[in-house]
Amino acid sequence: MKIRIVCFAALTLLATAVSAGQLKIGWAINDISTDKSVELAGTFHWRHSKGLRDPLMATALAIDNGEDCVVFLSMDFISPPTHIVKRVRKIVKTEIPDLPPEKILFNATHIHTGVSIGRTEKPLAEEYSHYMSDQIVKSIKEAWNSRKPGQIAYGYDLVVTAFNRRIVYFNERKGSIGTSPRGKAVLHGRTDVPDFSHVEGGADPFANYLFTYDMDGKLTGAIINVGYTAQVSIKDCYVSSDTWHDMRKLMAEHHPGVYILPQVAAAGEATFEQPYYKEAEKRRYRLIYGREEAYPGEFQRKQIAGRILTSFDRAHEWAQKEKFSDLPLKHVTRTLELSPSVPSEVDYQAAKEGLKKIREYRENPPWKDPAVKKRWMSSLNGRENVCKRIVWRYENSANLKKVPMEFHALRIGDVGFVSEQFEYYFEFGQRIQARSPFIQTFVIQLAGMSGGYLATERASRNGGYGTRFLCPVSPEGGQEIVEAAVSTLKELKAMDEPATQQQKGN
Amino acid sequence: MKSRGICVALLALLAATVSAAPLRIGWAMNDISTDQPVRLAGTFHQRISEGLRDPLCATALAIDNGEDCVVFLSMDLIHSPEYVVTTVRKLVKAAIPDFQTEKILFNGTHTHTGPSLYPQKNKKLSEITLEYREYVCKQAAKSVIEAWNSRQPGKIAYGYDLVVTAFNRRIVYFTRQKGSPGGSPAGCAKLHGNTDTPDFSHVEGWADPFVNYLFTYDMEGKLTGAIMNVPYTAQVSIKDVHLSSDTWSDMRRLMAEKHPGVFILPQVAAAGEATFEQPYYKAAEQRRYRLIYGRGEAYPGEFQRKQIAGRLLTSFERARAWAEKEQFSDLPIRHLTKKLMLSRYIPSDEECEQAKQDLEEIARRREKLSEIKDPKLRKKRATSLNTSDGRCHKVLRVRKESEEKPKLPMEFHALRIGDVGFVSEQYEYYFEFGQRIAARSPFIQTFVIELSAIVDGGSSGYLATERATKNGGYGVGPLSCPLSPQGGQEIVEAAIESLNELKNGKAEKAD
After folding, report:
1. Pair (A295, A364) in one structural domain
2. A263 φ/ψ angles, rounded to the nearest 5 degrees
3. Are B438 and B364 in contact (CB under 8 A)?
4. What pLDDT score was predicted for residue A205?
5. If I label A9, which of A447, A485, B147, B373 is the partner at 20 to 30 A Cα–Cα?
6. What confidence score (pLDDT) does residue A497 get?
């Protein structure tokens, strides 16, 4: 009986063991822009698009080795819209029968000058949704159908792309209705005050690269996985893919015909804004460009893209020395059930007070400046919804359900990938990377579906925007993702050691 | 009477107002190396140098505008020891009697393969060290004198860049970690702690990426040198047993290739908890070096030094490309030197009790030393225990002393050259203090310089924030910090006050 169990265990392990196979790689990119009168996503107040600044793209990279596969799909959007993801998978199921739809790993670049489908007028929103879905399907189909034998290389570099936007003070600050829980941290808070203590956490300087080549060793594309959310042009009123447009332009100049697929690593509290040295920054741009910006964020976008290109070339130079054409590939998709965020008594009372204030503001707006008034009035609905949600969640805290999340874990040779759908704070990503058994690990945030912030316990204690009641999932839920990621990556890693496992079984 | 008072105040203000005047700039660099065996500074255990890996240098940059001046003196030493500071000032005074030697702004690069310039227990080693120390002083003074005497009309430009040079080395865990006797207090943080564990929470703070540059030019606009102010301590070769200026040697080599004849003067910005070590991705890093170099390291830290120097050069070029578009030949200079009295770290009852317990543990460990068979390892442990023992005794001594002497003196510099501010302090000043100064300074850019002159019987040491102190671990608390976190904040406030005075042209009060 004992022997039979051991044999069965060994057979199971052998069956799940991954083996190296010839990689087949395909790329495609298609436009998902619109120049129509849409609303822009990413701010509490509404921003109406005046047109198209530069194109939004859906980039697909298909990699398979005959045993398993992945299609990375990166879209210039604030987060992957749930209905689009569902629709795309449905179409793919019928139109690409040999591609299991769950093998598509969607992510968004988190631009704040993309389309808000929810806020755009219904007929236009529907029209755009169809266009966007079709174009995404087109990218997936083209990438999948154009797969050819190819090679990959991987590397990383250290580069400054983002800062941490949470400024911590010695003393507690009052929050803001429906947007900022009370605490010591303030989003983009001033640092030129005696009360400034520190920037809450570091930003992550690790940029991960996965380069692809044809069989002649010619570079064909690269995944760029950075702890950076491209939202520099947040004050713009035009549709734009932000920094990734500048990066594509630079790539077209320096590496014509080479695709890039942007992924955002864990960077829930990332910002492009320096926490200080604002005057020095203005001077820097004055001396570099000698003119005013043509549009909001122009200079910063260019600068960040320039640094990423330097980093790209620096990493590529050494990474390309080790190319792989035959690699094990294993892609796991699961639904995780995560602990929900439960509002505290303090936040509950503040929300009830906030609802009262919102009613007062509506009846008697206190703002004299018409621009300020417009901005506030357009944000009241959003604030009210948040406050109502806090009250409801607090009063129903015993019945709150776990939050389901589509989770991907993937290995391609010695590189691991994990994805999650939230704006995942830097530190969670660092915990995964530090504990992963793979040489490099790409953590992909804003993947699969629309998410929301996912703050650490430390950040939640400090309060401020992007924590506590703004998070659908609790800090413990964030750590549940870490644990799931680490254990799944370890399982994937262990799969290439069947002989060892078998010996252990004996 | 009233109008007379106003006139006096106005006159005094005018007298104190700084005005732009033509700059005169001089550079010099001299060797401060030795091939004699000396103790290498920077580790608990004793390391005796086995020769010279690459030269240690003392680099001086003199800038004056006829109204005020500064001589920056950067030395490839772990800090700026009092003996060196005093002797250099004496030698300079003897050579240039009308030069005000408090205008010399010292800093160490914090290399951990530089010499310890203090008397040693071993007589021969001590003799060599003290003789060598005189050489260091002479050469450093020579740099100051040469820089001062070679001043020529020149121009400056300034800029900054964002580049990764360092990481924060304090790893914080969810649960409390035990301390080590005479080394680190117990707490949630651990120096270079393992991150590959479920208990890993986060890296304590942000290693800031701001690098400040002050470029100098001759009157034809030719680059002559640059101050590089980086929150980075060049201690990559800490495991080496050869004298070396660490990363700055690589940087000088790169500069000699790309910009022959151009000086660099390295300054360490606030970076008390900086490290060159990645907190994770260690295997990825090894692979990176294997693919870049395709061989083993010729000496400890070789690859990392080269990589950091390479990134610094890229950053240098990126900043210079735009900064040099605005060169200044006439600028106001105002240089203040003050003595600050700062709040000491006064050990609590619990900390004193811990020190006593640590001493007992150290004694127990000493007894077990004989069980170590390898003589090299035994010596390493023994010298390390000596250091820990000294640190514990110091905690108890400080507790007694601080009742009568709760403040410690520190030489403090505040300087403006046009729209650039500089402040200096002598400790290993945690990142966040520097960030507070940079954020609140009225100047467009502010160079915070750590490891500056030690005076008045002071000592080197860490200066940790309150947040870090709460987390425990190496580099905080009474074992490591002569000053309290409040003392650190007193420097911030003094810096802001002085910089505001300099900016507003009221460097001296009307009365």
Report:
1. no
2. -130, 145
3. no
4. 96
5. A485
6. 55
The answer to whether residues A330 and A360 belong to one domain is no
| ipTM confidence | 0.93
Whether A277 and B432 lie within 8 Å, measured CB to CB: no
Interface test with chain A among B158, B165, B288, by most A beta carbons within 10 Å: B288
Q: Which of B287, B432, B444 is the closest to A283 by Cβ?
A: B444
Cross-chain CB nearest to B164 (options A158, A440, A483): A158
**pLDDT digits 0-9 by tens, A21-53:** 899 999 999 999 999 989 999 988 889 999 999
Q: Cα–Cα distance between A141 and A143 in angstroms, integer?
A: 6
| Secondary structure of residue B203 in the 3-state scheme | strand
Q: Which residues contact A119 (CB under 8 A, 6 or more apart)?
A: A39, A41, A46
Mutate to test the interface with A, among B322, B445, B465, B500 (most CBs of A within 10 A): B322
So what's the pLDDT on residue A85? Answer: 97
Same domain assignment for residues A164 and A76? yes
A194, A276, A439: residue with CB nearest B287: A439
pLDDT by residue (tens digit) across A51-90? 999 999 999 999 999 999 999 999 999 999 999 999 999 9
Q: What is the pLDDT of residue B433?
A: 98
Answer whether residue A324 is part of any domain.
yes
pLDDT at B19: 84
Residue A145 sits in the same domain as residue A193: yes
Q: Report A:445-484 residues touching B (Cβ under 8 A).
A: 456, 458, 483
Q: Which amino acid is at A255?
A: H
Q: Report the C-alpha gap between A384 and A179 in whole angstroms.
A: 10
Q: Is the pLDDT of residue B212 over 80?
A: yes
Contact across the interface for B210 and A199, Cβ inside 8 Å: no
The structure's pTM equals 0.93
Q: What is the average pLDDT score of chain B?
A: 94
Predicted confidence at residue A17, as pLDDT, reads 65
Query: Do A387 and A462 have their domain in common?
Result: no
Last residue of a domain, one of A354, A384, A399: A399
DSSP-based three-state secondary structure for A430 = helix
SS3 of residue A477 by DSSP:
helix
Q: What is the pLDDT of residue B16?
A: 52
> What does the alpha-carbon distance between residue B62 and residue B502 come to, in Å, rounded to a whole number?
19
> Is A380 found in the same domain as A415?
no
- Residue A268 forms part of a structural domain: yes
- The whole domain housing A365 covers 345-399
Record: contact A287-B325, CB cut-off 8 A: yes
Q: Which amino acid is it at B478? A: P
Interatomic CA distance for residues B161 and A203, integer angstroms? 16
User: Both A249 and A391 in a single domain?
Assistant: no
How confident is the model over A110-145, as pLDDT tens digits? 999 999 999 999 999 999 999 999 999 999 999 999
